[in-house]
Amino acid sequence: MLSAHLAEKIISEVKKLLTEDIIIVSKSGTIMASTDKRRIGNYHEGALLAAKDGESRIITEEDEKHLAGVKAGINLPVFLNNEVIGVIGITGSPSDVSPFGVIIQKMTELLIQENHYSELFQWETRALEGFVFEWLQQRSMDASFLERARLLEINLESKRQIILLQWPQRLEPLLRNKWVQLLEWPEKKSNDLFVRWGNERMILLLEVNETIQSREKIKRFIQFSNSIIPGLQAGVGRAVDGIHVTQSLQQAERALKSIVDDQFFCFDEDLILELILDELSAETKKDYLEKTISPILEEDDLLITMEELFRQNHSLKKTAEALHIHINTLHYRINKIKTLTGLSLNQIYDASALYLAFLILEKSTKN
């Protein structure tokens, strides 16, 4: 409960307030940390008595003569959940150091409580992450898995919808304070599960009752998350039975990859062409690009022109304006695309083939 590392941390914080020597002692009477390094590991009888009695103990110069390892000052028991877990001692004239005793005692207890709850939070987080990771690999649920779910109070029977969040790669791994802020989402229910998914991702397994309401709730969650981590993006899978959560995760990953331009979220249920692209093998995509736009891959002006033409729904006027070029220059580029690829942007079949090639190229570049 009270480790040497934590004892050193407490000494470091408390000595910012006092010039007197300070010690942290285990409840068995061993000095764990001290501003005087020579005392570490020594036995301290006064601290042992303070721990046993659960009360502060003044150490006088007279006590130095018959109590082992003590110096004049004050020893104060430190409590966690109403149990003595150690003692903090302040060396000096009892009349000088006693007024600081209670303040230092409470400060030490607060540091220990913070560390305790931090460790508890980390333990619970790791336990949940381990369970969810296993859940997403499960093809069946054996008795051991079901028992762990019961201990973690996780409902496996309700429908789940996975939201996969990814923050910008420029950011460091998510700090605990940001993580806690996300967990404090006001609309979070007891059966909604948050877990980290690598250094740059997080998963929300949302318990779903009504799909329409959940869609709006998810949008609010993504907006809330973006207020904490600007630049965050989210892919949303579909609602599935608990045993099929892996499907929802795969859909969320597909939706995340499909985010374009200034979007910051995408629902898998809204995808159309992307459903086909996701099923194509890397070899098929490579062959398709070879047969379509490979001749213009080094022609940046032609690729930019084609991209803008698709964005402007084939409006020549708007495309020329957006690219800041003369309409004749645009016609020249469109004709050059036809010459090099053999496909005409003025023919619906050819234009569709080029658009599909452009989507494949865009996704492969992004990934």
From TrEMBL:
Domain PucR C-terminal helix-turn-helix, chain residue ranges per copy: 302-360
Superkingdom, natural source: Bacteria
What InterPro entries does the record tag this protein with? CdaR-like_regulators, CdaR_GGDEF, Diacid_rec, PucR_C-HTH_dom, PucR_C-HTH_sf
Task: Read off the Gene3D superfamilies from this record.
Answer: PucR C-terminal helix-turn-helix domain
TM regions (residue ranges): none
> What Pfam families does its record include?
Diacid_rec, GGDEF_2, HTH_30
Q: Please list the residue ranges annotated as the CdaR GGDEF-like domain.
A: 142-257
All copies of domain Putative sugar diacid recognition, residue ranges: 2-135
The similarity comment for this entry is: Belongs to the CdaR family.
Q: What protein name is recorded for this chain?
A: Carbohydrate diacid regulator
Task: Write down the species.
Answer: Bacillus mesophilum
